[in-house]
Predict the structure.
Amino acid sequence: MLMDRAAGCLLGGALGDALGAPVEFLHRTDIDRRYGPGGITEPPVPALVTEDTQLTLFTAEGFLHGLVEENGFTWPMTFIWLACRRWLVSQQRVEPAEGAGGLLADPRVYASRQPGLTCLRALQRQEMASIERPCNDSEGCGGLAHTAPLGFSPHAEMAYRHGCETAALTHGSPGGWAPGGALALIVHLVAVQGRPLWEAVDQATGRVLADDEETGLALAGARRLAVADLRAERADHTEGTAPSAESVRRLGEGWRAPEALAIAVYAALVRYQPARFREALRLAANHSGASDTTAAITGNLLGATHGTDVLPRSWLNRLELAEVVAQLGKDLGAACTGTDFEADHYRFTSATTDVP
């Protein structure tokens, strides 16, 4: 059921974000010293999300707001841009203003989780950036981190272009926005079309090569490593013997968007089975780099593939904003299939006067 896979995509991303957040910026040796040889294995209590999930929620809301206001999927970038600008409000105020609507009416979103300066500076501009009019030359992972909701566009190419344009709102280099398109395309292929993750990765690799060779090569490299490690694991007849942690290190640290996407795809492929969701997120989080982003994207991919049944209930019970994340996901899935949802929830004023 698409609504369940959409909810799984957003909830899985939030769980990965919360798992990786405490170890972001830590070297792997420091992670092991603090949490033991296996690194961090459970999200903390409460499982707090970072700006990656916050911006994902506002992006999803902006997408749905545009759908409701325009009565159809056209080109939602203005609405997503305004939604991301509305997220700035939650970073600069401590509580909702009188008459606030949508996510800004929820006091719990008013929490600053050390957002990246690249996103902050780009969204503080009065002019919306685009692929043709970049706001910077950044290829950091911050633009990629909130593009999964665009996978629930009704068509594959639309999902890809929406993902690219959304990432380009804050990250102007092809290496910053092309991975966003690739992630949205993979999510669309597995969740909407029901394609196997391996096939979706292959299709996204071919598509993104036309826009950014580095991202295409990073995805191809992640796939090769996944195949090699799974073969080694089967040859040894012992689960967990493949050099997965070393492979993650070879793919990079995830601060750059092509690396972050490659790490997430690798982790999702080598621990693809529904019962191994925890292992996939742990693999994606326990490394010397952007642990929250890489684990979040891994959760997006596996949640979109398998739905909510794979998500650990004990983790969900401690997850911040879990019911908000789930509802936005369900509404994305419903909108994608033309199923009725609470459209009035996405009718609110998004005037620029709300934005600092």
